[in-house]
TrEMBL record, chain A:
Belongs to the TAF2 family. One of its GO terms (biological process) is RNA polymerase II preinitiation complex assembly. This is Transcription initiation factor TFIID subunit 2. GO terms for molecular function: chromatin binding; RNA polymerase II general transcription initiation factor activity; transcription cis-regulatory region binding. The lineage of its organism: Eukaryota, Metazoa, Chordata, Craniata, Vertebrata. GO terms for cellular component: transcription factor TFIID complex. Keywords: Nucleus, Transcription, Transcription regulation. Residues 1177-1195 have a biased composition (Polar residues). Coiled coil: none annotated. The keyword Transcription applies. Residues 631-989 form the Transcription initiation factor TFIID subunit 2 TPR repeats domain.
Automatic annotation (TrEMBL), chain B:
This is Transcription initiation factor TFIID subunit 8. Belongs to the TAF8 family. GO terms for cellular component: transcription factor TFIID complex. The gene is TAF8. Residues 229-241 have a biased composition (Acidic residues). The keyword Kinase does not apply. Residues 287-297 have a biased composition (Basic residues). It comes from the Eukaryota. The lineage of its organism: Eukaryota, Metazoa, Chordata, Craniata, Vertebrata.
Length: 1195, 297
């Protein structure tokens, strides 16, 4: 009943939430449990509000009351277990669609929820008067797996002495994990939060702390918070612990909290927060919207930074002392990100998931402005380039990254193995790239409308929101605190008068990036530069660009910008040159920034006045440019172009030109103090590569050695490094990087030169940090990394066992250093144990190169819970690598076991993502690890084992995809309903969605012949029937599973419920307080919604539902395939699956006698396995034991 | 010089010196015995005689020492009669009775102690040339002592100031210490090994999980803090700045109660002004309220 249609926001719910009370009376650290209640004040917006849907996961709900009347409710979470017929289905397409359906079924943005409360009929009449309803829910959480994380160190003492703490966490809207609410970013309300905790603890939450009151026994205290600014439940958080409190010395309304003993670090780390505040308030010309701000630093954080209304939760590992150099900028950046999200993300929320990019974009953009101001333009441009490259690489790999899923069905995502319609179905990597692209797009908008207008738009959004926020209970005004793509664009056009619609269409609605190839020729007669810009818009992830592009040409007489129009067919562009070529006149050459420099022009082409050319220098298109110009031009560009992006590009290009001139240019850059340190670092690695390519002609000492000696060693004794001071950070970073790059040098035998190794060993030996006020832990760690880099594979005679005796002399020295460093770390641990991390990597490298026996046990001990998280990750990385190299199923099991049981969520996530990055095998290769048990295990993990953590589930899906692809894993026996089709010479007909996935299977089975075999899934039966009136059994079952327990359009409720109970295994909890109350499950409203969903799912092209057309086509084009008969059988008797299966093979054998042998084997294997599977199908199902039916249900 | 002499004498010339002293002592014993006889004792226990001998020796020694002191006080080297007399008077002895006592009739004559070789004064360590007296000092004044008693004698080598060697040495010393220490730790505790054939080859101290791993990983070690204190004095200003805060916190407490009652529901907005008066009004610093007494029955 949203009358403000012009605002474009229409609540999906038949009611409006205005206020919510959350009261947690008891937090038990010993048992890790929480007890409390919530009270939601809602205004119905329809006449007969008979049911209320709320979000709640894993909470145990004791009672629900509406206006003091007991109300019956149903608690049903379809995401607990995604697929129920899981004994048959193992393909990711199927899972993905089922998962999307499950998430949609409880999506608060669509008005759904896990908790359905029936409004007592006495209150129905009140609907006319639109009276307030108060929904009171008592709940508890016992050992929550998600939403709240308890950290309880296992030491002596009280909970406070032990540093036990608890905090809320989650990815996107995950508040439903710890209290019932409307878990949507678009449902705003005011809040009252009460937390009763032990007297020694502090409860930090959103809003203003009004008072703290002791309980009557004086052993506990209650923190009362009030949040008068309308806020979405998803932005509410809590952390409780024995925190040390630090009031910011500059801003007393800002309070910092850290764990015991870390106060000195907190003081130092927070000492510059006020500068970030000032910066944002100044550029946005808007005060920080909340009356207070709290930062809490917790252990085992889910992510480094998470922002909630008026508070942010950080990882405690961001804290550092004044002695630490490297962490300082990182921590500041995290703080700046958190604060930017306070304005856009917490205060201003989003209307729907499709609008998320605006918030992420704006917060990322203003964070970028902070970077520019604090760390300088160089750092900023470097960051933009880095982000752009990352994003482009991802898009090209994944084939597109649509930022807004704004119902643009024109932009399907069949290439992705997950749905982007919901934040909870996304792969984590995608989400990261999504944020990256969002802020890059904001930057493009800035380029279009100027920064001034941009900031005005932000200011407008903020001031509208703050006006709205001060309105009490005028709930329709609150929607102005929500931003949508539409309202954002409208603001932009109001403020700037410019229409950026095309820009949005190109970069937001449409996925893919532009790929340019540039080359040029100089026409001397006409004094014209003939530039050719080609595009690749056919390969995946690319799009065609039409529009302006900037080209900068540095000539002898100066630098000139040209704007070219990229049009449909024009490849060549003629650019007139301003200067005649001349060499004799000695004159300074003006650069882009007005600077005039002397250049040695002897290297350049005598006929051409061109020094260098850059395409799209400002990165105003999301693109990848591959430009061809002569090596001397790259060298000039590196030396004289002042833009760091240009310098980095030229460094990359120079790798292909291993000449003495390149060497000289790089060395010169290395020596130049004025040059940005990251460019110099890049130059180090490039120089190492060039030196390796020039091996035979290289003269003089190893690359960089004399340079390093000159810069960092003592004048009197050049083999000894100066004692550390690290006063100049630029040289510090260079000093760290050079040895690492030098260690990449190789001699003719492809070994690291002896000189270099000794040099590095000397650096370690003579390292002296006694007079330094900074810690040298990062430097020492990089020296160990340098040792790691110097390692080359051992020469092994047959497969002898590696022993101490046959250890190579150099390796012995390296190993000695590593052993000593690692042991010293136990006695004098370094900050964040950086040295241990490097040592573990080095040991793995030694193992991998065959110098020492390959053995994961050391890493496994370091990976155990109780080590510092960085160390664990490094150790796990080594185990993951070992698993791949040694194909060890024991280690793989060990890792997967840790994924399921480790207390730290970050570690679980990290293991899965590392396994995804460095998979033990892939879908393209055979591996003994790839077996049915593993498929089952992973399937179970993503199907039901990770329901408490969206991110982890998506990680599991990713891993499954990497290992097995979209379709049924090749190691499984053919499914009972599977079709094996001979598609000889008809490959082109294949549906592109399945074609790439089919690759390995086909080649494996058919060898060199042109034929292709396609394994179709059970799903085909569903789609086949889509045109037929009476749905076959298969469809019905599938329908039900998607629809869930509520989707019962059948007229007999009892029966349906019964069936659900046995076959669907949904977790249903029903509590009926009074006997007269009858739950009406058959509301047409609900089932319609569910059917709607279901249809949506069928329409999704990426789901199996769309596959059949392809099959049909294929079938028609093959006259001899025995398809019709099998089809008929399938649709008529779905119960005779195994018979069908057999049948197919039979026919198949007939057709392909050539491969009879091969097929035969397959067949046997499959049949026997199938039998086995059939008999165990139900007992194996993880779901079988899950069906919980409340006893009250039968009442 | 004294020390050297004694130790030298103790070893090389023990027997003549002892003989000499024993002879004197025996004489004293005879004296004691004769005095006892003179007093009418017929026999005495050995221990008693011994004690009396000791007493008389002490007395005589003291007289000698004092007389010497008096004489040296007057810048002479040989005591005169008057020195002895003053000494005796000082020790409470009536000198006038001495002539009478000496001439008493029943006194016994004691034979002189047997002549023994006077102990050889051991040769002093001679280091360098003894200085002769300058011309303005009369020759009767004592000689200069041996030069090594007043001239510094170099007993150490010149320290190496070569930078390279120093660094070299410091580096290897540190490395040795570290290696020894880690080896020791590895020997005494649990270890992990990289090789299967020789477990002792490169022993690694076993990784031990800690219950609160972030503390050791984040907090600077004491060693680092020490270096920081030594090297860093410029940053102290900053530190005192931030250390103001806890002080303020304490000041804040008494006034906080009033603040509480007047606090508007809006929150902590007035804190900005409060900060001007060096009062931080932060809700987390306010005292915890007592529970309200229930009025209901």
């Amino acid at each position: 009943m949203n009358r403000k249609k012009d605002k474009g926001f229409e609540s999906p719910r038949p009611f409006k939430l205005t206020h919510q009370v959350v009261c947690i009376n008891n937090i038990n650290f010993q048992r890790k449990s929480v007890i409390g209640f919530v009270e939601l004040t809602i205004f119905p917006t329809v006449v007969n509000l008979n049911r209320i849907k709320l979000n709640s996961k894993q909470c145990r709900i004791y009672r629900v009351r509406v206006n003091d009347l007991e109300a019956p409710f149903i608690y049903n979470d379809p995401t607990l277990e995604v697929c129920h017929h899981e004994s048959k289905q193992r393909n990711l397409n199927y899972f993905s669609s089922a998962y999307t359906a499950a998430v949609s079924a409880v999506d608060p943005d669509a008005g759904h929820g896990e908790l359905v409360i029936k409004v007592p009929s006495e209150l129905w009449k009140q609907g006319d008067e639109m009276n307030v309803l108060k929904v009171y829910i008592e709940f508890s959480l016992d050992q929550p797996k998600g939403g709240l994380h308890f950290v309880v160190p296992d030491v002596e003492g009280s909970m406070a002495e032990r540093g036990a703490h608890v905090f809320s966490f989650g990815y996107q809207n995950s508040t439903r994990f710890w209290f019932p609410c409307v878990d949507s970013y678009s449902e705003l309300c005011t809040w009252k939060l009460e937390f009763t905790v032990d007297a020694s603890m502090v409860a930090v939450s959103c809003g203003d702390l009004v008072e703290t009151v002791y309980t009557h026994d004086m052993r506990k205290k209650t923190f009362h918070y009030v949040l008068p600014i309308p806020t979405a439940a998803s932005n509410i958080s809590l952390s409780v612990g024995p925190f040390e409190i630090l009031v910011d010395p500059y801003m007393h309304e800002v309070t910092h909290f850290c764990l015991p003993q870390l106060l000195p670090l907190l003081k130092h780390s927070m000492s510059y927060l006020h500068e970030i505040f000032e910066f944002y308030e100044e550029i946005l010309t808007c005060r920080y919207p909340y009356s207070c701000f709290k930062t809490v630093f917790v252990d085992e954080a889910y992510v480094q930074v998470s922002s909630y209304a008026s508070m942010s939760i950080f990882s405690t590992n961001l804290l550092h002392s004044a002695m630490i150099i490297d962490q300082t900028p990182l921590t500041r950046q995290c703080l700046a990100q958190a604060l930017a999200q306070q304005f856009f993300g917490c205060f201003i929320s989003r209307m729907s998931w499709a609008d998320e990019w605006v918030l992420k974009g704006i917060s990322g953009y203003i964070y970028g402005l902070y970077l520019k101001k604090t760390f300088g333009v160089n750092q900023y441009r470097h960051w933009i380039k880095e982000e752009l490259d990352k994003m482009v690489e991802y898009e090209l790999k994944m084939g597109g990254l649509p930022v807004s899923s704004n119902g643009h069905l024109t932009c399907p995502t069949p290439h992705l193995h997950f749905s982007i319609k919901h934040p909870h179905t996304l792969s984590w990597k995608y989400y990261k790239m999504f944020q990256c692209k969002a802020h890059l797009v904001m930057r493009l908008i800035e380029n279009r409308i100027s920064m001034e207008f941009m900031l005005q738009v932000f200011n407008k959004l903020l001031s509208l929101a703050s006006t709205a926020s001060s309105q009490k209970y005028q709930s329709h005004m609150w929607s102005q605190m929500l931003v949508s793509t539409h309202s954002f664009l409208k603001s932009i056009s109001n403020v700037s008068g410019k229409d950026i619609g095309p820009l949005i269409k190109q970069w937001v609605d449409q996925s893919a990036v532009v790929k340019f190839f540039g080359s040029f020729a100089f026409n001397r007669k006409r004094n014209v530069l003939e530039l050719e810009i080609r595009q690749d818009y056919t390969s995946s992830g690319t799009q065609k660009y039409v529009g302006p592009i900037k080209v900068t040409v540095q000539e002898l007489d100066g630098s000139f910008n040209h704007t070219l129009q990229i049009e449909e067919n024009s490849l060549k562009h003629d650019i007139p040159c301003h200067s005649k070529s001349r060499r004799n006149k000695k004159k300074k050459i003006p650069l882009m920034n007005g600077e005039e420099v002397d250049m040695d022009l002897s290297a350049m082409d005598a006929d051409s006045p061109l020094l260098w050319i850059r395409i799209d220098p400002d990165m105003s298109i999301l693109r990848k440019v591959e430009f061809e110009q002569a090596d001397f031009m790259w060298q000039y560009q590196l030396r004289y172009e002042r833009d760091v992006v240009a310098q980095e590009e030229s460094i990359l290009a120079l790798e292909k030109f291993p000449t003495p001139a390149s060497r000289l240019a790089l060395t010169d850059i290395l020596e130049q103090d004025q040059c940005f340190y990251k460019v110099r670092q890049g130059a180090c690695f490039c120089l190492a590569k060039i030196a390796n390519s020039m091996m035979s002609t290289w003269t003089g000492p190893p690359a960089m050695k004399s340079l390093f000696t000159r810069m960092f060693c003592c004048k009197s004794c050049p083999n000894i490094v100066k004692t550390n001071t690290f006063i100049s950070f630029q040289s510090y970073f260079l000093q760290k990087t050079m040895p690492v790059a030098m260690a990449q040098l190789r001699d003719i035998q492809n070994l690291c030169p002896k000189d270099v190794l000794n040099f590095i060993l000397d650096l370690i030996k003579y390292n002296d940090n006694r007079k330094n006020k900074f810690s040298d832990n990062y430097y020492r760690a990089e020296l160990i990394d340098a040792l790691t880099n110097s390692l080359t594979p051992a020469i092994s005679i047959s497969n002898e066992v590696r022993t101490v005796d046959n250890l190579n002399g150099d390796v012995r020295l390296i190993l000695e250093e590593i052993t000593r460093s690692l042991n010293m770390e136990k006695l004098l641990p370094s900050y964040r144990n950086t040295i241990t991390v490097s040592c573990l990597r080095a040991i793995r490298m030694l193992q991998k190169n065959g110098h020492i026996p390959s053995d994961p046990s050391l890493f496994k001990s370091y990976a155990e819970y109780g080590h510092f998280v960085d160390v664990r990750v490094a150790a796990l990385e080594a185990v993951v690598d070992y698993t791949r190299v040694d194909r060890s199923s024991v280690e793989l099991q060990w890792l997967l076991n840790m994924v399921q049981n480790d207390p730290a969520h970050y570690i679980r996530h990290k293991i899965l993502s590392m396994l995804g990055k460095n998979p033990p095998f892939t879908k393209a290769a055979e591996s003994p690890l790839c077996n049915e048990a593993l498929v089952d295990q992973l399937w179970k993990l993503m199907n039901s084992g990770t329901s408490h953590d969206w991110r982890l589930r998506c990680d599991a899906v990713n891993l499954y995809y990497t290992l097995f692809g979209l379709t049924r894993p090749s190691c499984l026996p053919l499914p009972e309903l599977g079709l094996v089709l001979n598609l000889k010479e008809k490959k082109a007909v294949l549906n592109p969605t399945i074609k790439p996935e089919q690759g390995p299977d086909t080649t494996e089975m058919t060898g060199i012949t042109m034929g292709g075999l396609i394994t179709m899934e059970t799903v085909s039966s569903v789609s086949m029937s889509s045109g037929v009136a009476p749905p076959p059994q298969g469809l019905k079952r599938k329908l039900d599973s998607v629809v869930g327990p509520l989707g019962s359009s059948s007229p007999e409720p009892g029966q349906v419920l019964q069936e659900e109970d046995t076959s669907k295994k949904f977790k249903i909890r029903v509590r009926i307080s009074s006997a007269e109350d009858e739950i009406d499950m058959e509301s047409p409203h609900d089932s319609q919604a569910f059917i709607h969903h279901h249809l949506n799912i069928l329409e999704r092209p990426s789901t199996p539902g769309k596959e059949p057309p392809a099959v049909d086509q294929a079938v028609l084009s093959l006259p001899v395939t025995p398809l019709p008969s099998s089809f008929g059988k399938e649709s008529t008797s779905s119960s005779k699956h195994s018979g069908d299966h057999h049948h197919h093979h039979h026919h198949h054998e007939h057709k392909k006698k050539k491969k009879k042998k091969h097929k035969h084997k397959h067949k046997h294997k499959h049949e026997s396995k199938d039998k086995e599977r059939d008999s165990h199908a139900f007992s194996n199902s993880p779901a079988s034991g899950r069906s919980v039916r409340s006893p009250s249900m039968s009442d | 010089m004294f020390v050297l002499q004694r130790s030298g004498g103790g070893k090389a010339t023990s027997s003549p010196a002892e003989n000499y002293q024993l002879a004197r002592r025996r004489t004293l014993q005879v004296v004691v015995s004769s005095l006892l006889t003179e007093c009418g004792f017929e026999s005495a226990e050995k221990a008693a005689v011994e004690s009396l001998t000791e007493m008389i020796q002490s007395y005589i020694s003291e007289v000698g020492r004092c007389a010497k002191a008096y004489c040296e006080h007057t810048a002479r080297i040989t005591p005169t009669l008057s020195d002895t007399v003053v000494t005796l008077i000082e020790m409470g002895f009536n000198v006038n009775t001495l002539p009478v006592y000496a001439k008493r009739s029943q006194r016994m004559v004691i034979t002189a102690p047997p002549v023994t070789n006077a102990p050889v004064i051991p040769k002093a360590l001679i280091a360098g040339q003894k200085r002769t007296h300058p011309s303005h000092i009369p020759s009767h004044f004592p000689e200069f002592p041996d030069p090594h008693t007043y001239i510094k004698t170099p007993t150490f080598r010149e320290p190496v100031s070569d930078y390279q060697v120093v660094r070299e040495k410091a580096a290897s010393q540190r490395r040795d210490v570290e290696r020894a220490l880690t080896r020791f730790m590895a020997k005494t505790g649990e270890t992990q090994s990289l090789f299967k054939d020789d477990i002792t080859a490169f022993p690694l101290i076993a990784a031990r999980p800690s219950s609160i791993p972030y503390l050791s990983a984040l907090l600077p070690s004491e060693l680092e803090l020490q270096t920081l204190e030594e090297t860093d004095s410029s940053e102290q200003d900053d530190q005192t700045d931030s250390e103001n805060t806890p002080g303020n916190n304490l000041n804040d407490d008494p006034g906080a109660d009033k603040e509480n009652s007047m606090l508007p529901p809006g929150g902590v907005v007035p804190s900005v002004k409060a900060s001007e008066e060096n009062m931080i009004d932060n809700p987390y610093l306010r005292p915890v309220k007592k529970p309200k007494v229930r009025r209901k029955k």
